[in-house]
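Researcher: Next entry: Peptidase M17 (Chondromyces crocatus).
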Amino acid sequence: MVHVTSVVGLPERALLDGAPAAMACDAVLVVVPSPVTEHLEGLSEAVAGAITAAAKVDAALSGRCAPVVLAAQGVPGGRVVVAPMTALQEDTDDVRSVAEAAAAAMARAVAAGARRPLLFVRAPSDRRFVRALEVATLAALGTQWAPIEAREWEMAPPSAEALVVLGLSEPRARELAAIEVGRALCRDITAGDPERMAPVRVAELCEVAFARTGVLVKVERNVEDYPLLSAVARASRVVERHRPCVVRLDYRPRGEIKRTVLLAGKGVTYDTGGADLKTDGHMAGMSRDKGGAGAVAGVVRAAAALGLEGVRVVGLLGLVRNSVGEEAFVSDEVIRSRAGVRVRIGNTDAEGRLVLADLLAVARELASGTVNPVLFSVATLTGHVYRAHGPYTGALSNASASAEIARLSAMAEQWAEPMEHLRPRREDYAFIAGRTPAEDVVSSNRLATVNTARGHQFPFAFLDVASGLKGTALPFMHLDIGGVVCEGADWQFGRPTGVPVSSLLAYLGSEA
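Model: Predicted structure:
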């Protein structure tokens, strides 16, 4: 069901030596810093000559510019696609420049008719760019994804059959293809429209996507044991296809398990805001509010495809529609969480944290007796994270996970998924503290997070308390992907990014 362009790795000299696999390609993509003429070592004389000649008559090639298609004799496919980056010499430059240039080059080559392009990448040698080749490969592959509805209706645009990458080993090529399988599943879930990806249909997709992978899939359609999640879903129950469910994905590797990672993903398939209705056009794009669940499913799927050793990965997807109607939950209600914490509802449009709190309570229960457990929540949780940080994941942790989240953040930087690492403060816990003897915590204030100081930090405190995690020694990390779930922060039309699948997989595959 998931379509992923295949990846082929070739030795660095394959183009110079005229290897058959290289010559069977139909375009050469050149992604290099500017000025391009200073970074052509390793390319054949025909490719380098075509670029040098073009640079003499096109000053734009001396700096960053849109990809340029050059006709060239003796070159695979007779065409070269040049995508110059900046010089990448500034302290603020990072590997995202490589990803953006590779994606643009791939899209331009396919638009020109290429179906088996050859990718050549050069980047600075310092640590910021250590994953430049892998990042460029994944960025190029990502451009070939099309929405699941377009594929099912046979309306998807033409795509590449294979991407051939110079300097990439065959084992590494297979690993990147496996990562892209997970990212593609993440995009399918995230971008699917509210009906194609209604809760039960996400569950059905997971059952298909994980068939024959060895991952145990359990779908819970009775969610009464998830009181906060169940409250969010109350108004949706009158429509059969909108009813909530929780999907549990359990990947267990062969051999000894050295770590256990449990991930809770917010899967609000459509967010009307509930009784605190979204108005003034702010409801459009709210089908993307399930990006956290998409990311968690993608991580587990890629872990299985990679056959990760030594780490058990459990994904919990809370799939629910926040509908409005006569059964809708409302502000001022007091509801006990799965952990037994009394929660006063402050605003029904702050529903994602309710879903996550119950999932994290389950993760806490599952962690008991496991080996070196670590808990994550992944969610498009707030608008404030984009207001505060722009296109960066907001990453917070408890004290037990401070070293882990620093390690994850360093990996995310190398995989073009940078994070802003913050710490929770006493003000965050004071903000969510109960105001009366009737409640233990308050879910939110009445304002939108973008109008609230520390609007994406205080929800961490709520999750910590409402899930029963506070006071335990369990390492817990929270990733707010509200600002990065879609390209350009365009929730209605932007292509889902697949963030933070790559960096989480790097974390899973690393030694503590």
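Model: Note for the record: Residues 6-168 form a domain with the Leucine Aminopeptidase, subunit E; domain 1 fold (CATH 3.40.220.10).
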